[in-house]
Write a structure and sequence with these properties.
about 350 residues, alpha/beta, TIM Barrel, 2 domains, ten-stranded mixed sheet, 10 helices, 12 strands, elongated
Amino acid sequence: MTDTHNLYQLLPDDLAKWLVEHEHSAAQTRGVMAWAYKKQAPPLFPRLLEDLAKLPRTLPAIIERHLSTDGTQKILFALGDGQRVESVILNYHRKLTVCLSTQVGCAMGCTFCRTGEAGLGRNLEAHEIVGMYLILRKQIWQETSLQAPCPNIVFMGQGEPLHNFEEVKRALEILTHPWALDLGPRQITLSTVGYLPGLTRFRELPRVNLAFSLHSPFEQERRQLIPVEARFPLSEIKQALKTMPLLPRQFITLEYLILKDVNHSERHAQALADWSQDLKSIINLIPYNPVAGFLFQRPGEETVDQFKKSLVKRGVRVMERVARGSDIAAACGQLAGARSSCT
């Protein structure tokens, strides 16, 4: 293992191997990780500190930040190669959550989403994903007067997480490892449009929460919204979801974007109830956040409420997502990874 590996890319076994290769004891692994992730100062030998200084541990750099009237923050990061990617800090009544990206751009091409407009730039590496979290956590701790706990994570930013499976897997293992960031898997939610090669490997990941972007119970209609439906149809995705290993109080979240005059009829409500009835799931209704230049429109509150009632009367467990950060283009589907004119 060479010194070109970023420190924040290394799992304990990797770090132990690096220590041995540099003539240090593998027993120092836990101490080094405490020093790197928890800012503890264990007794590290001077020569070890000198060698660690040669191991890259650069983090993404904040180049732009916007604050919403509702307290949401959108942060634009510059990566080591000059690529840019966005993350969001969400504040729900002192429950802090960071929305992380996993790719520069996105290959899925969803017709309602700004992120995929320019296609896929590249996958993020694990150290970049972990690095964004470290920076956002530090910022949260600096800005709050309270002793804030580690913020939760939603992988709902730029990119399809399961399309970047190996790096996301490594990042999750670092985020949840007790020697590293020690987050509980239930503090993390991963969202997917149903990229089946990754979804069938989901059990390889720590037991994080899963959110599936459904948006229509009809395959042909869904294909117009999410082109990858043509390759991975709902029928196959459904079978994969039914085999998900869930903890006793864990549910699959079915994300349902409500688009004005598109997918909120009684016919949709019935088909959605039928499709979800044999899944251990809860439906999360998301009123569309408008994107400049896109044809879709946001439904009125009365429309959303009526659709919600239609689902409830059919025995469906439903919640509604509160929109955050839409005034700074930080809401669902609005991230672009570019400099913005928002103030």
